[in-house]
Amino acid sequence: MINTPPGPTLLGVDVILVGSILAGIAAMAVMFAIYAAITVRDPMAKRVKSLNDRREELKAGIIVNAAKKRASLIRKNETTDRMRHALQGLKVLQDAELKKIQQKLAQAGIRNKEWAVAVIFARLILPITFGVIALFLFYASNMFPDWGGIKRFFGFAAMVVGSYKAPDIYIQNLISKRSDAIRKGLPDALDLLVICAEAGLTVDAAFNRVAKELGRAYPELGDEFALTAIELSFLTERKMAFDNFAYRVNLDAVKGVVTTMIQTERYGTPLASALRVLSAEFRNERMMRAEEKAARLPAIMTVPLILFILPTLFVVILGPAACSIADAFGSGGPGHAG
Fold this sequence. Notes:
Layout: E1 9-10, E2 13-14, H1 15-38, H2 43-59, H3 67-76, H4 78-89, H5 95-107, H6 115-140, H7 149-198, H8 203-214, H9 219-234, H10 238-248, H11 252-267, H12 271-331
Antiparallel strand pairs: 1-2
Helix pairs in contact: 2-9, 4-6, 5-6, 6-7, 7-8, 7-12, 8-9, 9-10, 10-11, 11-12
């Protein structure tokens, strides 16, 4: 029986195995990118549907009339209800934590509050699942024979802790992307609000107009403005609509806009002048942020320049000269004497 020699290893890890796994992941990523490019959908369709659902919910006063719709809601929440009962049985479901996760989901653009139970359930299940997988990989199987006890323990701990923090990291990533998108379009939205206010539109009509104008360029901001316009039309207190706007967006700038809107509603101060000042302030802040990023570019580009660009330049510039010198020494060597 012929024994095949072991492959090359780096820090006790089989390089060929890791390369095969990375190649498989790259192939799957390419297939997913092709699928996503082929099946392109209208990004506004889902947003319009959710806004219409919110409008109908406010119209009905959160009272479901049709039995068919009521049954569909029960079927929709059946899975999360099971999760809720399981978490309550284990005494790990706390109202404060549930409300905190619901706010994070709202800031990430996920308005179904039942998903907060799923997030807490994932925090409980994922560490157990990946812990069992880590025990099999690092202790039961012989996949990493060169690893000592410390490496195995750190690998096990990394998988358990990473699986526990994965839902929070994913939600925080969604919040960061959505907040950045809203921050970019906020000065333009305030300028349009100023124009609408000076034209004589009411606040809810101005919000609705801005949502229509900016829906394509800034879909996240247009979504929030449209939802705020709906709540301004149907909620009993307008302050509740503005508070909900600040609740759903994790930005200090939006909180400043909401405070300004509430004060103008309460004291009757001119809305256009206050929004014009805020718009100018946000534009200056955006310009300062862009200048700060531009000032950091030389320091950030130093490492890629040294690691990737300079070696390529050396190969391109010195490569032909080195080949010529090697040919000259080779032609004049001992084999060509006499």
